[in-house]
Design a protein that fits this description.
This protein is α+β, with helices and mostly antiparallel strands and about 280 residues long. Helix content is about 20%, strand content about 30%.
Amino acid sequence: MNNRNIGAKPLRTPGNLLSGRSIFIFAVALALSPLASAQQSSEPASSGTAEAAEPRKDYYRAEFVILERKTDPDDINERMASRIPEPPDPELTEMLRAVDVNGTVETTLDLVPRSELHLNSAANRLENSGRYRVLMAAGWYQSFPPDFEGEPLQVAIGDWLEDAGHRDVEGRITIDRQRYLHVDVHLNHWQPMPRSEEMSDVRGDTPEEDQRAEASEDSDDAVEGDVSETADQPEQAITGVNWPKAELLTWIRETRRMRSEEVHFLDSPTIGVLVFFKKIEE
């Protein structure tokens, strides 16, 4: 178990937002309004008599819906291209939903059918409006006892970006519990890198050691010129060779305290996350 402290202060997406974000939130609120008066009372499906016979404490159905607002990227007032998030953590082993280049879906959770989700009707309503695309609707049953420190769950969904080699929405979601449940959403929304703005001279098309070897063969004057040009580049633009190969459109960086059986909405101008926890009494 990792000894990791997690705060509950929300981290807001920087930048000026268009009124479209308000429309985004309003549309989601309308989609959720029927849920406020009709809470589902579904219980977890039995997976065996031995397991069903054992009482489980602090047992919940966790639900997440990730959706994308269909909009022209040029209409987004945020300018995130200069921001370069940290590369994906190769040590992540837990997956909520990760789709590879071939469309194969991977998860390490025992997900329930989408039809059983409390958020399913809201997801369908938003999708049927034609203005939103549901990228993921997933739920599972799990115990979240006090002082629970969850492993980050990898998310990789949406369209495949060929040049970047990953999905256009990727990141991680972490669930913890102190006195209350907390959800930390850390998602990036990427778009293809504009050809005219690719920084091939900074990130390079060859490994870093090859670039150094080529530079060592040049004259001292040429080396000094190369160093000077590199030093003038923004520090965040040279975080690593070949990263990233896509342009950041928007992101979500937020930690939210959860209340059981309340729908929570975390958003950026282009993507949003609906979260719902159902306490299961046994």
